[in-house]
Amino acid sequence: MSPCPVMTDPLPQSFVDLLGDQVELHPWTTDPESDTLRRCRGIICYSHPAVDGPLLDAMPELRVVSNHGVGVDHIDVAAAVSRGIPVGNTPGCLDASTADMTLALLLAAARNVRIGDRYARSPEFVHYDPSILIGHEVTGSTLGIVGLGRIGREVARRAAAFNMRLLYHNRRPDPEAEAALGVEYCSLEELLRQSDFVSLNCPLTEETTGLISGPQLKLMRSSALLINMARGPVVDHAALVEALTSGTIAGAALDVTDPEPLPRDHPLLSLENVLITPHLGSASDRTRRRMMEMTAENLQAGLSGRALPWQVMTN
Ligand code: DGY
User: Fold this and answer.
1) CA 279 to ligand 1 centroid distance, Å
2) Is residue 231 situated within a structural domain?
3) For 180-223, what is each residue's pLDDT tens digit?
């Protein structure tokens, strides 16, 4: 059988090897005249290029969209489903690594790890000085989790080991999670008022776009840190710059931004009280391997007309 043409974002060689010789990979294009769009039967994507109605309409042979990751905000799932094209993603396998990274950013921002590293390498570090870089104590503080889904729950489990008081906000309370994890439900406003650390772990939807904007930032404590592991557009970046420069909040740690990457002259990049990482939430060896396997399984199922093992459902 000849290999099946599949359009893809750039893939690491280990992923290309995993897919084997049953697929023929074509680089991403949106040119409606291209042979790629006319012939490809599958799409592998993982983030930014939009998969929308016009792209789907330009791909008459398309049988499946397989997303390497759990977030599908870049895919118009309803448009795909209405055209009979299933969309797959990789839920579950990245919860632990994304929660690990949430705690890594929280701890690093709270305890000045980035600034401390730079100082320790610099000629200015000539002796131990107990008066510098005093951070926020994490143990025993209050963490507010916005979005207590699979990843948010893993964050709560880890934070419990730091004896943190755990608040959460979801569309509705989750009594089971409260019993299992010792988390307390509150309104977004109350969570923002009471938390020392606010961790965004929700998906990007219409409801969560701009969820943290000027009025919400003003509710936060002036000593509080905001951690965004969700998606950039959950936070209004102009309002965030204003809050960080005026001292409305103490700092932020961002694994995702809007846009991503930020333009090199973006004001956030020059602020000392911001820690930024390049969308590393799921970037651990075991997790990335499992994401590749699940993406490949979804792709192969869709190409051969079988139900996808991990299919995204529309609401
Ligand atoms: C996800 O799975 O959505 C992560 O953000 C990686 O893209």
Assistant:
1) 8
2) yes
3) 999 999 999 999 999 999 999 999 999 999 999 999 999 999 99
Helix (H/G/I), strand (E/B), else coil: 60: coil
Work out the widest C-alpha separation in the chain, in whole angstroms.
70
Quote helix, strand, coil % in the chain, to nearest 5: 35, 15, 45
Closest CA to 201 of 68, 105, 66: 105
Residue bearing tokens 């939009």: 50
Looking at the fold, whether 55 and 155 belong to one and the same domain comes out as no
Q: Are 203 and 232 in contact (CB under 8 A)?
A: no
Tell me the residue range of the domain where 250 lies: 95-276
Instruction: Say yes or no: CB of residue 46 within 6 Å of ligand 1.
Output: yes
* Ligand 1 pocket, residue 98 CB under 6 Å: no
Terminal-residue alpha carbon distance, the chain: 37
Q: Are residues 103 and 59 in the same domain?
A: no
Does 173 share its domain with 84?
A: no
H/E element, 73: none
CA 293 to ligand 1 centroid distance, Å:
15
pTM, whole model, 2 decimals?
0.96
